[in-house]
Design brief:
Largest sheet: 6 strands, parallel
Radius of gyration: 24 Å
Shape: globular
Structural class: alpha/beta
Helix content: 25-40%
């Protein structure tokens, strides 16, 4: 949700407000004046391009950044040949950093052809001091660098760069601040991510996220509900509640609210038909949440529940704070309450010290649970995490062989599990025209399985009953019911 503010009525010749978000609207108005001056000189509006790397949290952050640029008057560009290029970076794996460095080399060639081009970098990668030092020294053509905690300041930082005519670096180590009521440019008119919290307190030994996203801080439930109500008024039918660990939502609020309690409030919002959320940490998934999901008509029958490993010994080394047995017990309790639940997961293969016996424990969990799908990863040593300095790093050829075994079995089991709704009629939220079949549309079941069926663009954003005629392993071919 954001305020409907006429930027032309803001007096940019006065001192900027101290309070947020008024301060940022002031700077959006100043940037709009620069945009108008650019248009007068060049006969066109300046263009802006945003590239998002990483998770759903980054994607939602990028929608906010694009909303600010839109308010300032920029025209959206389709690629990096734009007047303003913004990379919202990820740093979960070190190869993500290398990818950004590679793209920066390309941007440098573009900037030489377009000297007034501005380049900005933000996101998790920018929270690493050594990264910022490297960019300052080796990529001096970059104009603006900021992190994960102050994305709301984009217009203010742009104004600083235009005034000072030199690189602007504004990195916060951490923050308690959450700025509400700023614009966002949603990718889809019918569904939207909604941040309910930021940061992470878990410190899994392989993960850099708590160091770059900061400690957990939850948005006030009234602000979340107000945003979702506005989304519903705008025609959104599905929301995805986002957080690094949604199950710990509300613990740091003045008046604590559980995640299950928040879901109850969201369910009451008229117009919202589907509620999704991610990510859930197994150690914090409460019995209250299970019961709320069981009794809900709107919460999708899909739960992403990362296991990471099936070995209790490795889970302890990962600092996951649950055992294999506790995870399997949790799965049993979830399935007892919500029998038609779709479970997906994340699995890391080759964590330091992993033996063949440990790996077979992971395979055992895969067999026992029967996941709808699993995101499988080869362990990647991440500088700055405790696991990076652990002994007994597993040889690459051993990890690759285990990974291939796991992937083959996951795919085999998933194909069977995902076919369970074959020859039934299910509700499908239509998301787009089919990329491969003319005259078809693509949508998703509540359990997140993709469905393709005959239709046209008029169906996009609607929920349609579809008869599932054929299972292709990970998706269905169907026909709109009654056709």
């Amino acid at each position: 949700m954001h305020q409907e503010i006429d930027l032309d009525k803001i007096d940019i010749n006065t001192e900027p407000p101290i309070e947020e978000p008024a301060r940022q609207y002031y700077y959006m108005a100043k940037c709009r004046e620069w945009v108008r001056e650019f248009e007068r000189k060049n006969g066109r509006r300046p263009t802006a391009f945003t590239q998002t790397f990483g998770c759903q949290m980054n994607a939602r952050d990028s929608e906010k950044l694009q909303g600010i640029l839109e308010q300032a008057g920029f025209e959206e560009a389709g690629d990096e040949k734009a007047d303003f290029v913004l990379y919202n970076t990820c740093t979960v794996r070190e190869n993500a950093n290398q990818r950004v460095y590679g793209r920066l080399g390309y941007l440098n060639t573009l900037k030489k052809k377009n000297p007034h081009m501005l380049i900005a970098l933000c996101g998790c990668m920018m929270q690493e001091p050594e990264v910022v030092d490297k960019i300052r020294k080796s990529y001096r053509f970059v104009d603006i660098i900021f992190g994960t905690h102050n994305i709301f300041k984009l217009a203010e930082l742009m104004d600083r760069r235009l005034e000072e005519r030199k690189m602007v670096v504004d990195i916060w180590r951490d923050t308690e601040q959450i700025v509400e009521e700023l614009p966002a440019q949603r990718k889809f008119p019918f569904k939207s991510g909604v941040n309910i919290m930021f940061g992470c307190n878990n410190f899994c030994s392989y993960c850099i996220v708590p160091y770059v996203r900061g400690r957990e801080r939850s948005r006030k439930p009234e602000d979340i509900i107000a945003e979702i109500k506005q989304l519903a008024r705008d025609g959104v039918v599905e929301v995805m509640l986002l957080g690094q660990n949604v199950n710990s939502y509300g613990k740091n609020l003045e008046t604590p609210v559980t995640f299950a309690g928040l879901l109850r409030q969201v369910e009451e919002i008229e117009g919202i038909e589907r509620i999704r959320f991610m990510t859930s940490h197994p150690k914090d998934l409460s019995e209250e949440l299970i019961q709320v999901m069981a009794g809900s008509k709107k919460i999708c029958r899909h739960l992403h529940l990362p296991v990471q490993s099936g070995s209790s010994r490795i889970l302890k080394a990962m600092n996951r704070r649950y055992t294999k047995e506790q995870y399997l017990d949790l799965v049993d309790r979830i399935r007892a309450a919500v029998p038609d639940i779709s479970l997906t997961t994340d699995i890391i293969v080759g964590f330091p010290g992993e033996t063949e016996e440990d790996f077979l424990e992971t395979m055992d969990v895969v067999e026992k649970v029967g996941f709808d799908s699993a995101f499988t990863f080869i362990y990647s040593r991440r500088t700055g995490t405790p696991a990076a300095s652990m002994e007994d790093q597993v040889p690459e050829e051993v990890v690759k062989e285990r990974f291939d075994r796991l992937l083959a079995r996951v795919q085999e089991l998933s194909a069977r599990v995902c076919a369970r709704d074959l020859h039934t009629t299910q509700k499908v939220l239509v998301e787009s025209l089919d990329d491969h079949l003319e005259g078809y549309v693509t949508g998703r079941l509540g359990n997140n399985t993709v469905v393709h069926f005959p239709g046209d663009a008029s169906l996009i954003g609607t929920i349609v009953p579809v008869y599932l005629e054929e299972s292709k392993g990970f998706y269905y071919m169907g026909t709109a019911a009654g056709v």
